[in-house]
Amino acid sequence: MKRNLLLLPAVIFFGLRVTAQVIDKSGKQNASVDYKRLALVDSVINDYVKKDWVKGVVTIVIKDNQLVQYKGYGVQDIDTKKPMPNDAIFRIMSQTKAIASIGLMMLWEKGKFQLDEPIADFIPEFKNPVVLDKFNAADTTYTTVPAKRDITFRDLLTHTSGIDYAAIGSDEMRAIYAKAGIPSGLGKMNMSLLDAIKLLAKQPLKFSPGEQWQYGLNTDVVGCLAEVISGTNLEDYLRENLFEPLGMNDTYFNLPQAKGSRLAQVYTEDDNHQIIKWSHTFRGIDPDYPLMQKTFFSGGAGLSSTAYDYAVFLQMLLNKGKYNGKQILAPRTVEIILSGQLKDGMFGDNNFGLGFQITSQKSAAKEPVNEGSFAWGGYYGTTYWADPKANLVCLLMTQHTPNSHGDLADKFKTLVYASLK
Fold first, then answer.
1. pLDDT above 90: percentage of residues in the chain
2. Is residue 345 exposed (0-12), middle (13-18) or buried (19+ Cβ within 10 Å)?
3. Separation of CA 47 from chain center
4. Model confidence at 283, in pLDDT bands (50, 70, 90)?
5. CA–CA distance from 399 to each of 56, 93, 382, 408 (Å)?
6. Phi/psi of residue 347, each to 5°?
7. Which residues contact residue 80 at a Cβ distance below 8 angstroms, ignoring those fewer than 6 apart?
8. pLDDT at residue 7 tops 50
9. What is the CATH number of domain 113-231?
């Protein structure tokens, strides 16, 4: 009996440690948050809704592993007038990139590849890449020169491979990709992921790998590599190794029909900047794509999720790779992922890690977030950041682009930091 009593403090301590790794949803107040100041988030967002600058928003704030704010504002759908629930499901578009990047880094931890290894070792079509030299806009013909080196895994994860975007890239590369039939990675694709990436590999690069930063289809290649290396499709791989262990039960490439009623409506603006519903043909993206069965799993833009699910993913990284007693990534791996990988000036005032924008000291002097914070967002108006110094995870989710009042995300950030004691 005495021995059991001696063990009791250790058991209690261990239990508290495990509990601390999980987001606390008990509703108790956090002593380091001024809730009166935080309530200004409500008034500002409600004002945007009242002025019809935005139709629906969800925000979440987690401080010290504790849920301090999680709300829906406005409506989920302008036709039904259904109030926006905080567990609405959003098309997170480029927020998919961080998840796919983490999925690939989990394979790196298992010794499956090296970061500076050529990706051609796994997808041979990428061997001996060429770089665009001269381009004729009249007929889209072009000449090339050999690239200085092959594309590596690190190049893809930092967007320095020379690969551009098919939908939002430079005029020259968009024309080349369109002529070759390269899919945009947005919405529903009508070919297999591997076939699309092999086709992409045959196109010229915008520059030699490592020379510049260029947002592009890099993370779609990351997702394809995860499939090739793991031997399973990206959806199943992420489900088994990331979503299920973290309890991310509302994150999908193929959203179940049973959850379709929670999918937020997508909006755009007319010529007078009035908000209208996104049509099924606008910009070639059917907004119902999350509910369409797909086999092309875009690591760059394919997922739908909730604010809470994504917050759990970010909290795992703040917890140095651990959540709910499960070590998803080693602490040192997380440190590498969240370290700037680029030379000064390659990404403006900030830096870029292995899948995330990293706030630099110079940038932190100009905005509320602390140096070392990591962030990104999605095409339809979702945005997130996590601040290790403040132990803070925040997301603001909308489905509205272009947005004449996109400054709401910056105001949200200011209001959150102003509420911290």
1. 87
2. exposed
3. 28
4. confident
5. 8, 10, 7, 13
6. -135, 50
7. none
8. no
9. 1.20.58
pLDDT digits (tens, 9 = 90+) for 298-320: 999 999 999 999 999 999 999 99
Q: Which of 304, 106, 129, 117 is nearest to 200 (CA)?
A: 129
The 10s digit of each residue's pLDDT in 60-78 is 999 999 999 999 999 999 9
Integer CA distances (angstroms), 347 to 60, 141, 161, 381, 418, in order: 28, 30, 14, 21, 27
Q: Return the closest-CA partner of residue 218 out of 283, 153, 174.
A: 153
Residue 148 near residue 132 (C-beta atoms within 8 A): no
**Residues 352, 339 contacting (CB under 8 angstroms):** no
pTM of the model: 0.93
Fold of the domain built from segment(s) 26-100+235-418 = Beta-lactamase (3.40.710)
Q: DSSP E strands: which ranges in 169-305?
A: 267-269, 275-277, 304-305
E-state strands within 137-216:
141-146
CATH 3.40.710.10 in the chain, residue ranges: 26-100+235-418
- Looking at the chain, the domain(s) classified CATH 1.20.58 span 113-231
